[in-house]
């Protein structure tokens, strides 16, 4: 996946440049990066305010932490030149599209935590005074 996205980005940038020209393509990439970073800044500040409010009320800020991580990933995607990465970045930075992704990630994390075997077979529970790996 890490190799596929940049290859698709390069292919699309070349095709778009062939159709509309190099200057227009470069302008699109720069403008989307600028608009995206403004959105990342705004959403990041909003998420930090919500996180601090949750901490003041002694509530769990799980949603805000996940949103913060998704916003950071969105910023990286928007700074990376390319149309596919810009699309991914905009999907992650906009609240209406970020919400279902956050729900999916929370559900996945809960399943991983409940199913210890998904972390591998090398997890040991050690109680005080008891060790299972003694020779």
Poorly predicted tracts of residues: none
Query: Which range best describes the helical content: under 10%, 10-25%, 25-40%, 40-55%, 55-70% or over 70%?
Result: over 70%
Q: In what range is the share of β-strand residues?
A: under 5%
Helix tally equals 5
End-to-end separation: 43 Å
Secondary-structure-based class equals: mainly alpha
**Order of SSEs, N→C?**
HHHHH
Main sheet attributes: strand count, strand direction, barrel closure: none
The rough form would be described as elongated
Our Rg estimate from Cα atoms comes to 21 Å
As for the number of domains, it is: 1
Strand segment tally: 0
Describe what you observe in this structure.
- With 135 residues, the chain is mostly helical.
- The chain has one domain.
- Helix content is 75%, strand content 0%.
- The protein has helices at residues 4-20, 22-56, 62-79, 83-93, 95-114.
- The longest helix has 35 residues, at 22-56.
- It is elongated.
């Amino acid at each position: 996946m890490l190799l596929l996205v940049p290859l698709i980005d390069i292919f699309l940038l070349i095709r778009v440049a062939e159709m509309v020209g190099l200057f227009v393509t470069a302008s699109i990439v720069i403008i989307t990066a600028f608009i995206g970073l403004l959105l990342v800044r705004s959403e990041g500040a909003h998420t930090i305010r919500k996180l601090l409010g949750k901490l003041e009320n002694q509530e769990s800020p799980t949603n805000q932490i996940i949103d913060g991580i998704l916003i950071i990933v969105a910023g990286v995607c928007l700074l990376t030149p390319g149309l596919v990465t810009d699309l991914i970045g905009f999907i992650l930075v906009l609240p209406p599209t970020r919400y279902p992704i956050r729900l999916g990630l929370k559900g996945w994390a809960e399943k991983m935590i409940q199913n210890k075997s998904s972390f591998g077979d090398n997890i040991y529970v050690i109680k005080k005074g008891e060790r299972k790996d003694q020779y």
